[in-house]
Amino acid sequence: MGGILVYALHDGEGKFNNNSLGAISEAAKLAGELGGEAGVVVVGDVSDEAAASLGNYGAAKVHRAKSVEEGLAQPIIDVMAKVIADDGYSYALFGGGLLGFEIGAGLTARLNAGVTMEVTAVKVADGKLIAERPVLQDSAIVDVGYVGEPGIIIGRLNAFDHKETGGSAEVIDVEVELSEWSTKARMRQRGEQRGADVNIEDADILIGGGRGLGEKDNFKLAEDLADALGGAVAATRAVVDAGWYPYAAQIGQTGKTVAPKLYLAAGISGAIQHKVGMQNSESILAVNKDPNAPIFEFCDLGVVGDLHKILPKLTEAIKAKKGG
Amino acid sequence: MKICCLVKEVPDAAVQKRIDPGTKRLDRSGEKNLNPFDTHGIEAAMQIREGGNAEVEEIIAVTMGPETAVRALHKAVALGADRSVHLTDGALEGSDVAATGYALAKVLESESPDLVLLGQQSDDGECYTIGAVVADHLKMPSLTQVIEIKLEDGRIVCERQAEYGYDTVEIDLPAVISVGDAINEPRYPSLKAIMGAKKKPLDTKATGDVGIEGDRVGTAGSRTQVLEMNPPPAKESGEVFEDEDTAETVEKIVAWLDERKLI
Fold first, then answer.
1. What ipTM was estimated for this complex?
2. Do domains A4-183 and A205-323 have the same CATH topology?
3. What is the pLDDT of residues B148-174, one digit of tens each?
4. Which residue, B251, B263, B256, is CA-closest to A310?
5. Residue pLDDT, tens place only, A98-120
6. Among the CATH numbers 3.40.720.10, 3.40.50.2000, 3.30.200.20, 3.40.50.1220, which is that of A205-323?
7. Do A186 and B170 touch (CB under 8 A)?
8. I need a surface site. Which of A22, A96, A115, B25 has the fewest CB within 10 A?
9. Cα separations (Å) of B191 from A70, B78, B79, B188, B194?
10. Mean pLDDT calculated for residue range A220-235
């Protein structure tokens, strides 16, 4: 009893997602307090060595379903439901990310289990887990408890840090018969990169561009400012999905996590999915025409105004200052 | 082909949202609107109908909520749905995600749709999970945050962004698809459509009408409990000012950057 099962997402080439590793470390810590173990589910082509290496983050057991393809939620729900039924895990924990949301949600239906999403912290009280979840644009935090078992906890991106503790996990192969509807979605192509391969993770200064830029060509305003400051340009999911900027420059839930010295948000509203990818920046400066934009709640300096007017003048002023 | 669009009534974005300290639930009083994310689902249904690759006999807006939720259905119909279904019952009050997903699946089951579309999230609850919960109850394949849907030989081919880039997934119908807001630009309803919306058929259903087991919904049937509500840790808020004179604004920003040695 008191076991916690984690799903570890990987890229198909043996590299696990950092948020999944964080979830394993968190599960190991919590399971220790509950008197249980942390188990992990992995699917697809994961070597013995790679699977066992999850013990280094606190996993006691790794349940590996080799025949199940990585990347689609429903077959993985089948695997996790079986492992929970066979091994009696009390909770399932997911790191932040799209696939974790889908699997956790489906598991909720499959097991008639309670679910809490966007969880930022988990605590133990009276032998049970309580999930902390910010709500209403982070203006309040609710503590959520579970009725019955299992309970499902879906973390917010970067909520859980991974810790290397040393050790190796026992690897157990599982055979799962897939549900009929789990075979009705088939991956044609996974992880296609769209747009240029740009590096935003090493930049000290990032100019983030959002829908407020108005159109694709206006990314030039952000690029000119980045050139003047010696930084790089990042983007929100909305503009990447719209084809305005490369996927490699995207910050947030399905993109990168950054913590530069300066993050200048140009025309970015500051939705949670973006915030979680950049909130640890040292200084955040926001320019947005909407005074109600959530970004103004967590920036260090905010300007309510038209970025099309402000950005070019700011670029000029910085160039002048650097030249002088 | 029959398409059901799940819609939700949410507090208007301009309304200050709050949690009722008594019930620890979101206070849903005040101005309401159709969840803006769901308008993309209706638009996606309309584009499938107009695309000519499939004959769409019906687009049905489906919601669960109190009496006032009828307004969200009227809006959905004004945007293109042919009729609507309103699941409303005091027994549903206080349902959590698991209970809501179960109840919605039961009402959808009564319509036997070929495709269920919904927005990727609700504007108020900030949760992205309902589509996947509903899908598993219906035993249908599912994908969330989809930004393109193409019809191909009775299947749909969807694109979406996941952790490692863009995925292309082919899915047999019937299916449940939650769409991202990049999928389309929802049209504005015409005045005629707005005026005519109230005349389109609207079925009101109670839990018993669609076979919902009473002990699986409402506060009592929920699998989670909100125990406590607290303010977030205090964070020193930054300075926010309005750009009145851009030369002055720029001067101020440069001084701020300079102070932090960022230039």
1. 0.92
2. yes
3. 999 998 899 999 999 999 999 999 999
4. B251
5. 999 999 999 999 999 999 999 99
6. 3.40.50.1220
7. yes
8. B25
9. 48, 9, 11, 9, 5
10. 97
